[in-house]
Amino acid sequence: MLHLLEGYLRGVAHRTGSRRARHRCAAVRLHGTGGERRRVREHQLLLKCQDLLAAAGYLRQEHEAPAILIGHSLGGAAVLAAAGDLPECKAVATIGAPADPGHVAHNFQPKLDEIESKGLAEVTLAGRTFTIKKQFLEDVRGQVLHDRIAKLKRALLVFHAPLDATVGIDNATDIFVAAKHPKSFVSLDKADHLLSRHEDAAYVAEVLTAWASRYVPVLVSPEEGEEAPQGVVVRSSSAGGPYTQDVFVEGHRLLADEPASVPGGQDLGPSPYGYLLSGLGACTSMTLRMYADRKQWPLEKVTVRLEHGRLHAKDCADCETREGMVDEINRELMIEGPLDDDQRARLLEIADRCPVHRTLENEIKIRTKLVE
User: Fold this and answer.
1) Rounded Cα–Cα distance for residues 262 and 173 (Å)
2) What is the pTM of this model?
3) Which of 60, 171, 212, 285 could form a cystine bridge with 65, CB 3.0-4.6 A?
4) Does domain 272-361 have CATH number 2.60.40.10?
């Protein structure tokens, strides 16, 4: 999420943050509050797209790339401009965003000469005082969004208040008309630019949560009054498509689904084989980490890539089965750290000793019965 002004940060950000049990959220904030206020106001307001892309790159490397971008005011312009450069992004939401970032310069009209001559000036925006620098004006005047919006190729949700005195409602019209479907517009009746009323922020958060559920996995919760199942429990989900499943694993709540390429699949979570391969990959990486730590080897990072396929038994030289089809899992290991060749070779051997690997290679009996 991108938050431009303090009122919105305290409102919608707080409300959506409370829903982390349903959606994994990360925030890129343009400024802080309280004691940070004086220092941060000396900075420019515009969040450059490069900053957003850098934040997304960090999330991609350390966690997972963002699937949804949400921006308020100029932050909305930033997410519209940057979304096309993030292949993992599935949807974009804007709140009070300008279609032409350069238009905001009219808000500083009485101070424009001072900004141009002195390099900065204090202006009042939506009832708050900010220091605006000359570089900021040059930045916003150089932004052209129409082509970016037209080529967005992502689902779009546009929030805007008809009474917004800072960024006029015509901006929402321009954004909506420029975008291709799927797109939606929500009018924020009686709200101001900062969504300073609690009920307005709460409304936006509720709509965002419901809309986001179409594009990113929802972290499901037990039914009202029901305790989380113990152990591993999978059941048909009341949300999503016909194949969507609620998955409860030792207190953790997940989703499973078929990919969109399968008729009826909503791609709201990993496929069953995705979970199977993930289990093997996680076990492999954990086993290598435990072994290296016990040996005090300088193992820094393990990456495991897996792929499942099927081949004819006659094409498998080392398979005992000689007829029909054989399942095959290809596993690639990337081991990082100042390890010598013997250590790397030993870790390759240890990978085959992970418990899940042994389970998959051993004879397995699956016993199924009906229960009430």
Assistant:
1) 36
2) 0.52
3) 60
4) no
